[in-house]
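[Discussion] Sanity-checking designs against the backbone

I'm trying to build intuition for which residues belong where. Below is a structure token string of 165 positions. I'd appreciate it if someone posts a full sequence so I can compare it with mine line by line.
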């Protein structure tokens, strides 16, 4: 039998409310960058962005019993895909026995640009006219970094998130 005390976790900490006079100190502290990882790759840092509750607009109230939204996540778009590439090579290199042409991707490989284009065209034509209440984008768009012959760099990660450097 499992020890029930091992299954219990403490509740998350309560959100911290800052007095207006303390915001300046927090924003100054936020200028310090945070490393993404401790890998042997070049150090990548992202700025910390703080938004305070009194700076946010109140969401529009919906009296309807239901609403719709779009959730976008885990695209993993890969500009290095070869449509007939070998899955064992993450579709980055041709193989002696090419896989069938897969313009929208192959199981075992990240997604090609054609899939991204088709996704956003579908959203534009079929979802946008329905006026969803909001779009939830939870990220993770960069391709997987599993091919030593085609390493992923910081510029590619930022570009996948739509962040210019």
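Best answer:
Here's mine. Compare freely.
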């Amino acid at each position: 039998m499992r020890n029930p005390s091992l299954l219990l976790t403490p509740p998350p900490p309560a959100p911290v409310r800052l007095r207006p006079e303390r915001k300046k100190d927090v924003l100054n502290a936020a200028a310090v960058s945070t490393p993404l990882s401790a890998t042997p790759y070049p150090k990548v840092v992202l700025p910390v962005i703080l938004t305070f509750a009194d700076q946010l607009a109140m969401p529009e109230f919906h009296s309807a019993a239901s609403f719709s939204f779009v959730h976008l996540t885990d695209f993993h778009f890969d500009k290095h895909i070869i449509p007939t590439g070998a899955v064992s090579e993450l579709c980055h290199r041709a193989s002696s026995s090419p896989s069938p042409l897969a313009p929208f991707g192959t199981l075992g490989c990240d997604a090609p640009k054609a899939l991204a284009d088709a996704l956003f065209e579908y959203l534009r034509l079929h979802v946008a006219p329905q006026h969803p209440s909001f779009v939830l984008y939870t990220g993770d768009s960069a391709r997987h970094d599993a091919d030593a012959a085609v390493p992923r760099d910081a510029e590619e990660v930022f570009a996948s998130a739509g962040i210019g450097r």
